Each structure stands twice: as structure tokens, then as C-alpha cells.
Amino acid sequence: MSIINLVDVRKVFSDGECYIDVLKNINLTIGKGELLAIVGPSGSGKSTLMNLLGFMDKPTSGRYLLEEKDTSKFNDIQYAKLRTQKVSFIFQEYNLLDDYTVYDNVELPLLHRRMRKKEKKELILSTLKKLGIEHKIDTKAAKLSGGEKQRVAIARALVTGCDILLADEPTGALDQERGKDIMDLLQILNKEGKTIIVVTHDPNIAARCKRTIRIVDGVIYED
Amino acid sequence: MFFKTIFKIIFKEKLISFFILIQFILTFFVSFAAIENYKVLNAQKEKANQFFNIKNTLVIYEDGDRTEGLKYIEDYYSILDNLKTIKGIEAVGYYCVSGNQNYEPNFTSSIKQCIYLNEDMLDIITLKDSDGNRINGDVIKKKSTNDSRNPAIVGSALKVKGENFDVFYDGEKIECTAVCSLGEKSFFPGTQHIGAAAVDLKDAVICNVVKDRFKYAAFKGFIKVNGNNAEDLKNSIYKCFKEKGIEVRVVTMEEEVVEYIKQTEGFTIMTYRLAIGLSIFSILGTVITLILSINRKKKEFGIRMATGSSKLYLIGLVYGQIVVIVIAAYIIAFFWEQSRSSEDLVRTLGLSTAELFNISFSIKYLLLVFIIILVFSSMVIKGILRLEPGELVRGKN
């Protein structure tokens, strides 16, 4: 059963004078529970594709069906809702708010949900426990190590309970051992039923995914 | 949750928040003072017209600090005696400010003339009668009519004997009926006066009690004239003083009222200008702070958007922060201004504190401040609307 369906999706960037076709007529179907790697050289359009998949950007043309619902005409508020209810992002540079505590960072996607304070705290704590960083709950993000930061970023993505996890170079800023830990974690999450899409340069990471697509010059070159 | 996030942001950005808070506290404080001054101005105008509506009277001003030669108030007596010889002048009276600017004229015990009915203080005067019972100013007020509240320009002599005073009215000894102390409630705290009644309490005069020879700082005299020739007599009075090398300013009571109102108006206008200036400064400061804040926090906004915040929510956070700070400043300034308001001034002018502070006007003013901030910071809104989460989190902006 497909969870994501891109039909003839194009993304054009413009600086006022020049138009760059970053993604050209992309057709892609991703099934529920897949562990998919998107690979390709720099500038090939894989991050743009990731942004489109994560509702961080809108396609110039084409249709994006999420659970068979066309999201192409959604407005900014509906997109924001999808980013907290349907998909979650894990970034290469973690993208945590450095001045805020681990709790505050993991709480971010829950700010838009009506939940009791106690319920929210329990949810955050159990997620942090799952990732083995519950003891860092009151530590400021700036004081964490790279591996801890990525775990907090994953906790922030998991706390929403979204079915789709998008990971953009999740191990790019980590050493080999920490990177392996993170990939192990993603594989466990995939086994639990999450659909995981990973953008990577690393062939070893791609090899650990069930499916790999290669993008070259904005076109899916290999699937 | 929304407000919790706002408070968290305010706390994280303590310095900026504090800066905006202080700006707006000062702005609101001065604005409230301006609103209050406007009320006071109107009340003072009314009061001035009521109490200084005295016909056929001239007022003489002279700043003692600028006078070379005549340094002591006694030196004026001869001039004032001479004034009485001018045809058309009925009586002369005056009071002085002593060298320490304390409105406590400590002249010599041989003071000749110093009787002055301190009309505009009736509300706050407490007199003692000869039995030592206090007579409240209100009692006098009730007994008085507007007509009876004429200045006591009686040109009598005064001698001090311990706590009892001999009071002379036009050379005749009259009974001293009361001694009053304005105490701390006076416009001029510490001033001692005696009240003397020639006929009835309604005509009470209040005399400045003098003890030692003292250099004066400023002088104010009153000339009661016969008929409606006050304007014509100005030149004669100028001449009389000029012969002794003294420059004085002579005005009619009507001019005195205009002058008095002008001074109060001047102060009110000044506070209004200051309030407007501060408002512009605060609003501009806030708008600039907001614009800088957007540029500084692009990545944070990107992260918030990536985790589900809409652009509208971010605009709400930015403005919510300002709204909370401005409202806090409004409340602090409100209580500050309330604590500053002079109780005596309020009582003297017959206004209640609630009357002095126009709450509905001040709330409208607060709303206006918000609208202006919103209009002037359209650049902030545009800036947020241009943000794209994908690019922000990748640091491309």
C-alpha cells in the first residue's frame, strides 16, 4: 500500500532572471513501512525532493498524494499541520535550538497539539528513554555531544508519532561508530512500522536500506 | 501553550525584552503624566478664574537675586509707602520669598507691613481659634462667598509676641483670632501664618510671620486701586521703583491669571511633546528590534516551521512577545504614575484620583500604540512570510 505518491512533480527555482529546473517530472511511489535511501551527487536535487516530501516546500507543478490525498493545493497552515502530524524530519546538523533544554526541543512539535501537561511530559520522557538520553532532559542542547544531539533530534521526530520519518544525511556529522548507532536505531524504527526515507552520500548507509533511488540532474535515474 | 512559549522567548531574550520594557515604561509614564496634567490644567484654570477674579488689583513681581543695592525687604517699605501716596492707590500689600527659597519669610521683628490673604490655600488651611480649637479651612470656605475672598491688602503692622500676635488693621489693633500651620500639606511646607479677623472670619487675613532680617530672593506685591484705573497706574508704579533702580513687572490680576494659566499650559504642552517624542522613539526602537530579531532568528524560525509552526504562528509569537512586554510596561507605568500623583494637589483642585487619570483614553492610547507598531512593522510580517523552512534549516538564508 502506497503512503506517498508523487506524480509529474517539478520544482523550479528562480532568482528573478534565471529559472533552474531542480526536479523534472518526478514520479515516485513509496510504500508504507519502506526504508528508502535517496542517493545522488551534490546538486542533483535530492534535498529538494526531501523538502517536498517533508512539506517544507511546495512543488512548482505536479501532484503530491499523501495517503491518497492530494496535498498540492494545501495552504501554509495545512502544510504546517502535515509537518507535525504526518511527517517528521531528522537533519544532518540536528537543528536543535541551542539555548533551550532537551525537553524544550523535543516539546517543539507538541506545541501545536492539545495535550495535558502531564501527558506531554510522560510522552517526552518515554521517547527520551527509548533513545537512552532521558538523563539529559534538563541539559541545554548546546552542551550535548554530536551523537546526543542527533538522538534528541530523532526523539523530536518520534515524539509526534508520525508514520513517516525523513532523515537528511542523519549520520553526516557523526563519527563512524555513532553513525552506525543511529542507523541501527532507524532500522529498529522501520521494523516497528515507520516509513523511513534517508538522503545520503554514504553507500554503506544506502546498502542498509531496503530500496535505493538515485537522482541525477533532477531526474530519478535508477530505482 | 502559546503564551508559555512567548514567556519562554521573553526570558531567553532578557536584554532585548528589558530594553523594550524600559522604553515603554517611560513612554507610558510620561504619557499618563501628560493626560493628568491636562486634567490638572483644566482644574487649575477653573480655580484660577474662581480665586483670582479680583478686580482693581495690580501685582508687582521682582526677582531679588537680580537686584543690586536693595537686598532686604525692609528697603521696599519706603517705596511701598510712597506708592500709597499715588492718587488712585487704595492699599498696598506684599509677600516675599526668603533667601533660602523656602517661602518662609524670616524678616525682622520690626516688620511693618506683611499681610496677605492666601486665598488659594483655603482648602488646606487648618486654623486654631483663640481657645485652641481647630477651624478647618472648609468652615471658612462655607462662610465665605466669592465676593468676600478679596486679597487682604491692608497695609497694617504686625508685631510678634511669643505665640500670640498683635495684628493691626489699617493702623488699628485688631484681635488675633487664629494661628494656623499649613504643615506638610502646604504648597510651601513649614510656612507659619496667623489668621486675623477684623470683622468676621470670612475676612480672615493670613499673615506671614517674620523673625529675623533676611535677604530676600523674590518679591510679590499687591496694589489695590480705586476704580477701574489699574492699567493707567502701571506707569506710575514702574516710575516709583525705577527711581530706586529697581526693575519690576506690574500686571493686573486678569493678566496674572493669564500668565498663571500660560505657565501651566507650557508645562502641559512640554509633557505632551515629551510623550509624543518618547512614543515615536519607543515604537521605532521596537520595530527596529523586531526586524533585527527576524534576521537573527531565521534558523530558529526554520526549525519551528519544520516542527509544525505555521508562518501565522510565528508572526503571533513575534508580536505576542511585544504585546506582553508593552502591557507589562503599561501596568508598571500605571502604578508608578498613581503613586506619584500628589494627594494634596488632588484635594486642592477638588479632583478625585479617578478623575485625574483617564483610563478609557489611556486604553485607547495603548491600542493606538499596538496599531502603529503593527503598521510600521509590516516589513517584519513580509520578512516572515518570505521564510521557507527548507532553506532556513539548511542555512541558505
Describe the structure.
The complex is a heterodimer of chains A (223) and B (397). Chain A is built from seven helices and ten strands. Chain A is of the alpha/beta class and 223 residues long. Chain A has one domain (33-61, 74-222): P-loop containing nucleotide triphosphate hydrolases (Rossmann fold), CATH 3.40.50. In chain A, the strands form two sheets. Chain A has a six-stranded mixed beta sheet, with helices on both faces. A four-stranded antiparallel beta sheet of chain A has the order 2-1-4-5, with helices on one face. Chain B has two domains: 2-47 and 260-393, no CATH class; 56-227, no CATH class. Chain B starts with a helix and ends with a helix. At the A-B interface, helix 1 and helix 2 of A face helix 1, helix 7, helix 8 and helix 13 of B.
Largest interface: A-B, 29 and 25 residues
Elements of chain A, N to C (H/E) = EEEHEEHEHHHEHEHEE
Query: Oligomerization state of this entry?
Result: heterodimer
What separation lies between the terminal Cα atoms of chain B?
29 Å
| CATH level 4 superfamily of chain A | P-loop containing nucleotide triphosphate hydrolases
- Please state the CA-atom Rg of chain B, rounded to the nearest Å: 30 Å
- The residue fraction in helices of chain B comes out at 40-55%
For the record, the count of structural domains of chain B works out to: 2
CATH 2nd-level architecture of chain A: 3-Layer(aba) Sandwich
Shape of chain B: rod-shaped
Q: Main sheet of chain B: which strands, in order across?
A: 4-3-8-9-10
Care to give the gist of this entry?
Chain A has helices at 46-53, 76-85, 102-107, 117-130, 146-158, 176-191, 203-207; strands at residues 2-14, 19-31, 35-39, 61-66, 69-70, 87-90, 164-168, 195-199, 211-216, 219-222.
Give the SSE layout.
The complex is a heterodimer of chains A (223) and B (397).
Chain A: E1 2-14, E2 19-31, E3 35-39, H1 46-53, E4 61-66, E5 69-70, H2 76-85, E6 87-90, H3 102-107, H4 117-130, H5 146-158, E7 164-168, H6 176-191, E8 195-199, H7 203-207, E9 211-216, E10 219-222
Parallel strand pairs in A: 3-8, 3-9, 6-7, 7-8
Antiparallel strand pairs in A: 1-2, 1-4, 4-5, 9-10
Helix pairs in contact in A: 4-5
Chain B: H1 2-12, H2 14-51, E1 57-63, H3 75-85, E2 89-98, E3 126-128, E4 134-136, H4 137-143, E5 158-161, E6 164-169, E7 172-174, E8 176-181, E9 192-196, E10 205-208, E11 216-225, H5 230-242, E12 249-252, H6 253-296, H7 298-306, H8 311-340, H9 343-348, H10 353-356, H11 359-376, H12 378-386, H13 389-393
Antiparallel strand pairs in B: 1-11, 1-12, 2-11, 3-4, 3-8, 5-6, 6-7, 8-9, 9-10
Helix pairs in contact in B: 1-8, 2-6, 2-8, 6-11, 6-12, 8-12
